[in-house]
Amino acid sequence: MNAYYNNRYSKALSHFEKLIHLKSNLKGEKDHLRKVEEVCEKVFFELKEEKGMKGARKASSLADQIKKML
Questions:
Q1: Which of 5, 18, 61, 65 has the smallest count of CB within 10 Å of its CB?
Q2: CA angle 4, 53, 1 (to 5 degrees)
Q3: DSSP SS3 for 51
Q4: Angle, to 10 degrees, between the axis of helix 30-49 and the axis of helix 53-69?
């Protein structure tokens, strides 16, 4: 079961990364962006606990980018 969720973390992060590239369409969607930022931070802590440092860095970077967009 853990492997299933670990695979989903990377897919979710890749979708969030694509979302950031659409930032011109997201100006009125601050609530959604805050939720995405929250999820990225949660994924960061989960991956950090499991020693998935590459994915954790990506999640942290995405959360920081979203914070700048808000």
A1: 18
A2: 15
A3: coil
A4: 160
- The predicted-structure confidence for 18-69, as pLDDT tens digits, reads as follows 887 776 566 667 788 888 889 999 989 988 888 878 888 999 998 998 888 7
**Whole-model pTM over 0.70:** yes
Residues 43/9, Cβ–Cβ less than 8 Å? yes
Domain count, the chain: 1
Token couple for 24 = 């011109």
Is-contact 32 58, C-beta < 8 A?
no
Structural domain containing residue 50? 2-69
